[in-house]
Write a structure and sequence with these properties.
- By secondary structure, the chain is α+β, with helices and mostly antiparallel strands.
- The protein contains 7 helices and 5 strands, in the order αβαβαβαααββα.
- It has a single domain, classed as Glutaredoxin, CATH 3.40.30.
- The chain has a 5-stranded mixed sheet with strand order 1-5-4-2-3, sandwiched between helices.
- A hairpin with a 5-residue loop joins β4 and β5.
- The longest helix is centred in the N-terminal third of the chain and has 26 residues.
- The radius of gyration is 21 Å and the shape is globular.
- The termini are far apart.
Length: about 210
């Protein structure tokens, strides 16, 4: 009986420890961003050279790779951008018009035209106007079409190529690319990143950006 009680106690300790470890992973560790330690210079060049649009605030920089109809991107923008802007965080949004997949279009002519214009002008006001209108109702008023224009089509493709180049670089750092893809620098000067699809990731981003 004494030996049974001993083994039962040991088993209980193991179960409690395992449950605690799982809870820590499930509620905290799995949502933490990654520190980017490989390919930092190349990732930085790709981000800085892309057609990001930003409000031009003086604080920390947060790059967000997005596409217009991405629901997780829209949620992050609506919930987190106002408080970030209040703290001076310069949200640099990189909009992409995704490629067709198996003959199915993943973007619209108006979207491609707007993405090209954003990459060429980095016009934050244009991005705000676009985001204020339901995606399906946006007609890209006053914006030259990208379709049929070789130069503007090349700009749209540059966005897609940027994503293609970022994916393996980030994967080498443990970040599996998804939208919205976020990259920033913490107070230690470390490059940080996450594919922040879930709200559980937001608190870590806010904390590191001082929000």
């Amino acid at each position: 009986m004494g030996r049974f009680k001993l083994w039962a106690s040991v088993a209980l300790v193991v179960v409690v420890a395992a449950a605690g470890a799982w809870a820590f992973w499930n509620y905290d560790l799995r949502w933490r961003p990654k520190t980017v330690v490989r390919h930092q210079a190349e990732i930085t060049r790709l981000l800085e050279a892309s057609g990001w649009a930003a409000p031009g605030l003086p604080g920390k920089k947060l790059y967000m790779v997005s596409f217009r109809t991405c629901p997780d991107c829209v949620r992050f923008r609506l919930e987190e951008f106002p408080r970030m802007h209040a703290k001076g965080v310069d949200t640099r949004v990189i909009e992409i018009a995704r490629r067709d997949v198996n003959g199915v279009s993943k973007s619209t002519p108006a979207e491609r035209a707007t993405v090209a214009q954003l990459w060429l002008t980095r016009d934050w006001k244009l991005l705000e106007r676009w985001e204020a209108v339901p995606a399906e109702a946006w007609t890209a008023p006053g914006i030259a079409p990208a379709d049929g224009d070789m130069a503007r089509t090349a700009v749209v493709e540059a966005g897609r190529s940027t994503v293609d180049r970022l994916k393996p670089l980030l994967k080498d750092n443990g970040v599996n690319f998804a939208y919205p893809l976020l990259v920033w620098w913490n107070d230690k000067g470390e490059m940080r990143s996450c594919a922040c699809e879930k709200r559980e990731t937001y608190r870590f981003v806010r904390r590191e950006l001082g929000v």
